[in-house]
Design a protein that fits this description.
single chain, 14 strands, 4 domains, 13% strand, globular
């Protein structure tokens, strides 16, 4: 019974909290050990949990997911039973209706998982609400199309739309409640940063934006030695290992594994390549095979067929939007509608990429290649709208039909900018092991101004783990990034590209590391 874990949560009283930061040290805590567990009294809440709260978190996340799925499915079931099933002449009996509603719940679950809506403690409240909203709209749309197919006619979408409104309101209230209380039950982790010669201030600055999840309390350089570093680790909830030499990193990871300490690691390029390896189980000694040939032949054929199908259909369906965007660009200043620019694709092959012109004519008349900056005066009002909604990228569907690009892949860089990046990061050319894409893993996980080194890592994660299922996931996630302002942020206005040192220096000045 020694390993038996007790989980008990008792609400002693309802307490209202004020102040801009509820994670301050105003908690009243009392602890005692019993059966290998800790008792905590925090702000009127008694929590009996084991030293590792992972199981408790997962249980709460599971209950949250079940509640939200049941909430939305119940609304759909009401609209189905009281309107659509009657319109179909009781197309389904009781068991059939249950299966149809279960299918709705399954689709909603898949879409929420795709957009990360159940990631309590990871997503901000606004991001979670946004994920739920998109997933719910898509689920209702799919369900409506299924109903119309069964009816062999277009039915009234009103009843389904009327259930969408209270669902969104209920999800708003519930998500605000559950996220705030989850943050109180599981305050941010106290962390120590282990770093080497390369500056870690950029990472600290990014993590400091998520003060609801991370608190970096101290930092120590690897030059202090493993023994000294190991003596500090048990005093913290987690350790962040940032670009350290392999030998000491391995020692720290083994120490964390032995002592059950949470470890966050910034991966090296070699780590990503190993992650894409396959297991070879023909010997009694474990072997990993890193093939390094990119996608398999059958995968390339399927991907090309998928590109042709999707790009061709998109050009037909989106033709009214394409015409409207072209007219808006032409009417604004009378300049050319399409802007073509030399880019790099698979194997370093150059091609001309097509976009709706979003900047003034001769935006680079000085001959210097530069990325768009935040508040760039070269961007026209029409172009600003096109860039924010990503509509300026739609002419690249023609590049996809011509075989120069793919729907999903690393975004193509300009040759002159790629040369600059490769001067500082020789491995940057590894991105050319896949055909350039209209959207990509780095686009849905990063930002426009994400550093080239981080973009390279993200693109390599995609290249090493390619599958059509991953492509579909990225396409669905692209819909979300269209509405996220941060994904279109420009670089520093004084920088020519994301590698410009002024950008890094300004970013590093915003953060301080206590050494």
């Amino acid at each position: 019974m020694e390993d038996f874990q007790f989980i008990f949560i008792a609400i002693l009283s309802k307490v209202w909290y004020t102040g801009e930061n509820s994670r301050k040290s105003d908690d009243v805590c009392a602890s005692a050990n019993s059966f290998g567990t800790n008792f905590f009294l925090r702000k009127g809440v008694v929590i009996m949990m084991n030293r590792n709260a992972t199981n408790i978190k997962r249980f709460i996340i599971f209950l949250n997911a079940v509640f939200q799925i049941l909430l939305c499915t119940s609304s759909f079931a009401y609209a189905w039973e009281n309107y659509y099933n009657l319109q179909l002449g009781n197309f389904f009996f009781k068991n059939g209706s249950i299966i149809f509603c279960a299918l709705y719940a399954f689709i909603y679950f898949i879409l929420i998982e795709l957009y990360g809506g159940f990631r309590l403690g990871s997503l901000r409240i606004t991001d979670s609400l946004f994920s739920h909203g998109i997933a719910l709209i898509f689920t209702d749309l799919i369900a409506f199309l299924q109903i119309c197919m069964m009816a062999r006619s277009i039915l009234n979408p009103g009843p389904l739309f009327l259930t969408l409104i209270p669902d969104m309101a209920a999800l708003l209230l519930w998500n605000v409640y559950i996220h705030r209380n989850f943050a109180r039950l599981f305050p941010p982790k106290k962390m120590i940063l282990v770093y080497a010669n390369r500056s870690a201030r950029s990472l600290v600055y990014k993590m400091s934006k998520r003060y609801d999840k991370f608190i970096i309390c101290a930092a120590i350089n690897v030059e202090e030695g493993f023994e000294r570093i190991a003596s500090y680790l048990p005093d913290y909830d987690a350790v962040v290992i940032c670009d350290t030499p392999n030998e000491i990193r391995n020692d720290i990871l083994k120490f964390c594994f032995k002592n059950k300490i949470l470890a966050y690691v910034t991966p090296k390029i070699s780590d990503i390549l190993i992650r894409g390896s396959e297991e070879l189980n023909i010997l009694d000694t474990p072997l990993l095979v890193s093939r390094n040939f990119g996608a398999k032949l059958e995968q390339k054929i399927l991907k090309r067929l998928f590109d042709l199908l999707v790009s061709g259909a998109a050009l037909v369906v989106l033709s009214p939007i394409l015409l409207a965007a072209a007219a808006a660009v032409k009417l604004y200043d009378g300049g050319p509608v399409i802007y073509k620019q030399k880019r790099l694709t698979y194997g370093g092959k150059e091609f001309y990429l097509y976009k709706f012109r979003s900047m003034i004519v001769d935006a680079e008349k000085d001959g210097r290649a530069r990325l768009a900056a935040e508040g760039d005066s070269r961007i026209t009002p029409v172009g600003s709208f096109l860039r924010k909604t990503r509509l300026d990228e739609l002419p690249q569907l023609l590049n996809i039909l011509r075989g120069e690009m793919s729907i999903v892949g690393p975004r193509p860089e300009r040759p002159e900018i790629a040369v600059e990046y490769e001067g500082a990061i020789p491995e940057f050319s590894f991105r050319l092991n896949a055909k350039a894409g209209l959207t990509g893993y780095a686009q849905v996980m990063g930002k426009y101004n994400t550093t080239p080194y981080d973009k390279l890592k993200l693109d390599l994660i995609y290249i090493e783990n390619f599958s059509l299922l991953l492509d579909l996931k990225i396409i669905m996630m692209t819909v979300k990034t269209i509405f996220v302002k941060e994904s279109t942020e420009g670089i520093d206005e004084n920088a020519l590209n994301a590698m410009d040192l002024s950008y890094h220096e300004q970013e590093e000045e915003r953060a301080e590391i206590k050494v």
